Amino acid sequence: MKHTISVLVENKPGVLARISGLFSARGFNIDSLAVGETEQHDISRMTIVVKGDEKILEQVMKQLNKLIDVIKVTDFVGQPCLERDLVLIKVNAGKGRRSEILEIVDIFRAKIVDVATNSMIVEMTGDEEKILALVNMLKPFGIKEMVRTGIVAMGRG
Amino acid sequence: MKLTGAQIFVESLVKENVEIMFGIPGGALLPVFDVLYEAPIRFILTRHEQGAAHMADGYARATGKVGVCIATSGPGATNLTTGLATANMDSVSIVAFTGQVATHLVGNDAFQEADTTGVTRSITKHNYLVKDVKELARTIKEAFHIARTGRPGPVLVDLPVDVQRDSCEFVYPRAVEIRSYRPKYEGHPQQIKKAVDLIRQAERPVIYAGGGVIISGASGELKELARITQSPVTLTLMGMGAFPQDSELFLGMLGMHGTYFANQAMQNSDLIVAIGARFDDRITGRLDAFAPKAKIVHIDIDPTSISKNVKVDVPIVGDAKNVLREINKLLEKSKLTNLDKRKKWEKQISEWKKENPLTYEKDEKLRPQFVVEKIYEVTKGKAIVTTEVGQNQMWAQQFYKYNYPRQFISSGGLGTMGFGFPAAIGAKLGKPDKIVFDIAGDGSFQMNIQELATAVNNRVGVKVAILNNGYLGMVRQWQQLFYKKRYSGTNLSPNPDFVKIAEAYGASGMRVSEKDEVEDALRKAISIEGPVILDFQVEREENVFPMVPAGARLDEVIRGLA
What is the pTM of this model? Predict the structure, then answer.
C-alpha cells in the first residue's frame, strides 16, 4: 500500500542521509521525496512516498521518530489531506500538432512554459492521478523528457 | 575568557565528570592532546582503537557511567567502528571523539580523511561534525545527554583540527534542550493497569527480563515483582545479574543456548511479562511458533523494540524501574487469582528442572565447563566476568552464577569477538576493587591480544582464562552438527604459546592441562597483582548444550550428541 509520510526535521546537514538510510537499510525504495523549509527556517518538512509491507513500514515510522533530528512524523493514510506534485514535460510538438497539445493542456488546466521549433514544455500541478492522466494523453506525441518535484502533502483543516 | 577548541573540549569533559579516557592520538588530534598533557583526566593509551572503544564500553557497563574514547581521523576513526556498533547493539553509553581534517579540507580526500559521521551514522545513537568552535561546548553537552538518557547508546563527535585550534568564549550550558528528543520514562497508567489485570489472572506466568533492567537499575523492582507474583524469571544474556541465580524462581537463560526449562516455560506459558528485552532471533527461535499460548506484556523504553518481532498485547513504553514500581504497587493492593493453577505451574517447572538440569560430562578430562565452575568457586561468585564470543561466552553464562547487576559483561547483540579482554581492562579500571576475569576463547583473545601492553603498562590486573580448544569452537560445533563435521576454516592449531606471549609483554602466564591443577592455578592468578593469562588446554571438541538450532522452535532442543 502506498503511504505519504510527512516528516518534520531539524534543518541541518546529514538529516536527509539519516532518513534515507532508514529506508534503504530495510530494502525500501522511496517513490518520491520532497524537502523544503517550513514556516520556521530551522525546520524542514520532508514528504516521502513509499510502498511496502505494513509491518516493516510501521517499524520504519517508529525508527524515524527515534532519530534525534526528527521532530514529528505523520502518515497521511486515511487522513484528509491535499497532495500536490509539479511536473514539467517536454513533448514533441512539430508543426500541425501544437493545437492538439494546446487543447489537452487547456483541459488539464496546465500551462505551456516554453516553446521551440520541435517541442514544448508543459507545466502542471496536481495529484498523482491527474499527472498520470496528463502523461498518458501526451505520450502519443512523444515525451522527450519529464521531471517531477515529488509529492508534497498537507493535512486539511 | 576565550579558550581554544582543544581547551573547551577538555573543560567540557571535566564538567561532565570524566575521570578516564581511552584512545590513541594522531595528527588530527594534536591540539587536544597538548591540552590533555596536564588535564585532570586519566588517559589510557591503547594499542588499537578498537581496544579503546571496548575499554570505554567495559568501563561503562561495569560502572553505569559514560565511557569515553578518542581516536584520530581516518584509520583511527574507522578502527573505532566495531566498538561503536557493539555498544549500539547493547545500549551502552559511550561518547567517542574523533579527530578530523581541517574544515576546508573535509570532503577533499585529504590525508587520513574518512567521512566519519557518514561511516558511523547507522552504528551510533547520534553523531555530530562540529564545524564551528562556538558549537563545541553545546555539542559535547548534548552528546553526553543523548548517550546516557532514554535507551542509552554511543554518540560520536567529530572534531576538525582547525576547530580545536580556533577560540571563543567558553560557557558550558547548564541544561540541554533538544525539542525532538524527549524519552518517555513514565509508563501510561492505563496500560499499567491492563498489565496488572493480566498478571493477576495468569495461570502460567513467566517473567522474561533483559539488559534494560540493569540499565535502569530495576533489579530490586524485578525481584519484588517475582516475589509478589511468585513467577519464574528467565533472563537474556544481557540481563544476567539482574535476578539472583540462586533463587528458586530463577530459570536461567532462555533462547538458543538457554536452559531446557526456561524454553519450556516460555513455550507453555499463558503470560509473558517482557521487561527491557527485545525478542531477538536468538531468543524466540522460530517466530511463528514462539510461545503460542501466551499473552505478552512488553515494557521497554524504546518504542521501536515493541511489536518489532512479536505481536504484543500490552505495550508499555517507559523506564523499567518506574513502570515496575507502579505495577508492584497495584499488585500489592490486589489479589492474585488462580492460585491452585499457579501451584501446578510451579510444580511443572520444578519437574522440568529436575528432568533436564544444566550439566556436562564429569569425567577425568579437562572440560571448559569445569574451568568456569572453578572460577565461580574460587572468586566466590563475586568477580566481574567479561566474555569473548562463541562457546566461551555460553559456558561463561551457563556455569558461573551471577547475582548482582553489572557483573556479567558480554557482547550480546553484535557478538564481537575480541570484546572481552579490552572490556575487562575497562571494567577493572572502573571497579579496581573487583576481581575481573575475561573468560576467553583462543580465537577471540587473539583478536585484541595487543592490549596486553595496555594492561601491563597501566598495571591493570585482569585475569584472562583462555578456554583453549584450538578451534573457532562455536563455528566448529555448527559444522559438526549441521555440516557433516567438515571443519572448514575453523582449526586454529597450532596456536602460539600464550604463556610466552604473556611473558613477552611483561604479564604472567600459566598453562593448565589437568583437571586437578585448575584450582591452584586460579588461586595463584588471583594472588598476582598484574595481568595474568591462563591457558586452559581443554577438551577440543566439547559442545555447548542444550541447543535450539537456528530457525527451530524453542522446544525443539538438541540436548547432547546421540
Answer: 0.95
